[in-house]
Amino acid sequence: MPDATTDRITDLAQLEALYGRPAEASTVKEVPFITAEYRAMIEASPFAALATAGPEGLDCSPRGDRPGELVRVADPRTLLLPDRRGNNRVDSLRNILRDPRVGLMFLIPGHGNALRVNGRAHLSVAPDLLESFVVEGKAPRSVIVVAVESVYFQCARAVLRARLWEPEARVGPGRLPTPGRILAALSEGAVGGEPYDAAWAARARETMW
């Protein structure tokens, strides 16, 4: 068994001694605003993970939309993220109201490097802003306004190790439990099951925006 008294890192000095100093490229890439190069990456991304924190703990929420509509770059220090239809848990939004710190990680299909943005957010329901994000006649109920504090790209090692964009690495249908099956197992059959899975595609089309 590991010895917790000798095998656990407990302070920054131990951590820094183990890993050493970051390379110059790892620090030069971080800036407090959105450069032209970083803007190009943001506008090419159809997917981001939004990390927030609140009294109940942490949350990391997937966000997806068409490239250029997922997030709008209002200016080099401001991002606008429409809150599209979801499950109404509003975990991220609840957290932002009580702790404005947020982190975003953007992924671009076929591209190894990710882009990370940290900042502070608030929620807006300004009518003109909501209207500017209308898709197929439907506006988001709120927009997350992010005041950017740091931006940097994440090198491609993680994506390459995961073989994330390689077709042969995809997990085929039938190899994992479906949402309906998971819900049925957790609710002793009261929720979910095959009817849930069968209806999901149509339900998603009707409630996409």
Give unreliable regions as ranges. Answer: none
CATH architecture of the largest domain: Roll
C-alpha end-to-end distance: 52 Å
The CATH superfamily title of the largest domain: Electron Transport, Fmn-binding Protein, Chain A
How much helical structure, as a percent, in the residues?
25-40%
Number-wise, the strands total 7
SS field, number of helical segments:
9
Strand order of the largest sheet: 2-1-5-6-7-4-3
How would you describe the shape?
globular
The average pLDDT value, as a whole number, equals 95
Query: Strand share of the residues?
Result: 25-35%
For the record, what CATH class of the largest domain applies?
Mainly Beta
How would a textbook summarize the main sheet? 7 strands, antiparallel
Number of domains: 2
Radius of gyration: 20 Å
CATH topology of the largest domain: Pnp Oxidase, Chain A
Q: Structural class of the secondary elements?
A: alpha+beta
